[in-house]
Amino acid sequence: MTDDRSPSGATAGSPAPPPTTGRSFLDDAVAARGAVGFVAVGDRFDADLRYLTRFEGSEDDHAYVRTPDADVLCAPPGHVARATRQFDGRVASDRPGDHPGERAVAALDASIAGESEGTSESGTADSQTVLVPPSIPHDAAVYLERAGYELRSTTAVADARATKADGELEAIRAVQRAAVGGVRRAERVLAAAERDQSGGLRLDDGALTAERLRRVVNAELARCGVGDAGNTVVVAGSTGDGGTETEPIATDEPVRIDVAPRGPHGYHGFRSRTVVVDSDGGWERRAYVAVEAALEAALDEVESGADADDVRREADAELAAFGFDPTGGERGSAEGDSDPSETGHGVGLSRRERPFLRASETLEVGSVLAVAPGLTDSEHGSVRLGDLVVVTEAGYELLGDGTRSFTPRA
Amino acid sequence: MTDDRSPSGATAGSPAPPPTTGRSFLDDAVAARGAVGFVAVGDRFDADLRYLTRFEGSEDDHAYVRTPDADVLCAPPGHVARATRQFDGRVASDRPGDHPGERAVAALDASIAGESEGTSESGTADSQTVLVPPSIPHDAAVYLERAGYELRSTTAVADARATKADGELEAIRAVQRAAVGGVRRAERVLAAAERDQSGGLRLDDGALTAERLRRVVNAELARCGVGDAGNTVVVAGSTGDGGTETEPIATDEPVRIDVAPRGPHGYHGFRSRTVVVDSDGGWERRAYVAVEAALEAALDEVESGADADDVRREADAELAAFGFDPTGGERGSAEGDSDPSETGHGVGLSRRERPFLRASETLEVGSVLAVAPGLTDSEHGSVRLGDLVVVTEAGYELLGDGTRSFTPRA
């Protein structure tokens, strides 16, 4: 039963408690806009709500309401005990059939009624403005508007999420250990695979396909206690979409492995590596050297205060210096969920979040960034190298080890 | 390397193509409401958009627009090639920075302009009503409203999703094979585990905890090519939240295993089993017998035309007949994502969707239903048995085998 072991070092021991990130920044946003409160509504896939409440959520929409006097999670029926355990504010139970928009209105009304009875010192009691995230569900927004509230959208939560607190970094470090382990596992399997007479890889008397290697990676992630979250991509050569091909991986083609697993408190990791079992020194070798240089150049730009777009520009410039076209359409877009035409992006409760590598974004201490330049060629395949870093006072720190190898290591 | 094999039979061979479910039902809904079209906006977690377009999506919101003359997916930059491969209508590329609401407006405007130039025979050209799902993001709704469109919400997509087409059933059967394999794996590991002197289970010289067993299940699901989707729950005894405990599973406590993995085209499976390694015939044995009877009674109610709430009522009546309180608060709500107080629910692109087991719902041919009664006791733990079925002309058909055993089988 040696295949059911947990690998040593990977998320071993007791899991850390969920990050505590606070919600007082919402009070500042509410005060600055002269609003009466903040409302968010969403389901378990809503990263803003997860950030604010740490409630794992359900398929049913739930609401979070904050005013100077209230800090309430309106939990769906059947989830109140769990919500109470996970959320450190007050939990109100929805009645079955209640819409979370109705519940949010009730919580807002109650809070404002309470405030007006007291000796309110703020001048906001007359205002009926409520801040909401831009993508609040329209039906919930309509409930709020019909109750007399005027909605103003706020990016306060996305802004707060763009730099990570220590507890968040700890969660990301934990899932990143698994990400490193998952990719390393693929490398080992490739190194140990046998080859058939036509240059295809074999494992246990069967063809080693990209899909089979993807399953190997995902099983390793599961053993480490994290979920692949549907984000694992294995591309071998130019075979396109990894999920549909049944051909064995060829010894001379680049094998690109991207992972972005999701760990216990909902935080993602990120890692991208490319290896070639037996390269003939052609396109894949030249591309690898260029992408490696691009990764180093991009990482050199990562520091507090840097323009995020410079990270992308430096990577592109390096690829161009090696004679590649860094803007050649959708590089590698044929491979599942990821968009390898992006040189990088923030990582956290969403697989892909702020900061994005564009001119309007500035890197700050606590920004967590996937830096992952790549090249795709319609004939030869795809090469990508990506690391996860956190911006520090001194520059940046790698999350997970930065080792890489063109030839898979045993 | 025998631990990297794919188990025989589980999603082996070439994956089936994505289900083709058609979108003409939207034209009926649009015509019936005198609207000019239908618009949906969402990200990769939006099951309605997945159903309509089969596009796997991205973190960025994208829009789908349908009018009598248009059938357009507005894909985020960098995802156009993949969207074109996955969606069988027309794909329009968003410009970076465009809001999907803007793109939807542009597609609607273009379609209506084209229609008014032709010899329109319909009387709808004057209407500016647009149908949208109730939870369309508010910012997208505001773009549509500012462009002069009046929004009316429609449940047409949820209604269509509530009964499954053959291709959808094929996808569910595939993921369900993996669900069965994952639970079976846990059973085998429990059967093979050794016991320490104090009645705790051990595996490979380490304690076999609920968390470790959860990882075993998830690794097996990954080997079968499906994702656990964060839905695997293993509860041993009354230790509560499976993820935080480090105690070995005791031989005499019930071990409940719930899985709801997600397969290649986004469809979910469902299975719940409970086993006891070495029962002393106490609460867990009585609860098992009652839950087994409740499952059979509930399944007996499943047929086309049945009131969905009767399925729940029959299960509760059977539990009551065995002397248990079926309405005792949040039964087992301490265990991760699932809500075992629910006797059942529909399963499809969402883990939990229509039909729900309530009075307003009627089962139809093609309804796919998780039927899973359970009992939780604060002292002894949790017992649940759940199968996945599809309603047929003749009654129902089990998806995945219906075998179950109180004692784990080797």
From TrEMBL, chains A, B:
Residue ranges of every copy of the Peptidase M24 domain listed in the record: 172-393
Ranges annotated as spanning the membrane: none
Compositionally biased intervals (Polar residues): 117-130
Alphabetized Pfam families for the sequence: Peptidase_M24
Region span, Disordered: 1-25, 113-132, 321-353
PANTHER family reported in the protein's UniProt record: AMINOPEPTIDASE (PTHR46112), XAA-PRO AMINOPEPTIDASE P-RELATED (PTHR46112:SF2)
Name listed for the protein in its UniProt record: M24 family metallopeptidase
Species of origin: Halobellus rarus
UniProt lineage: Archaea, Methanobacteriati, Methanobacteriota, Stenosarchaea group, Halobacteria
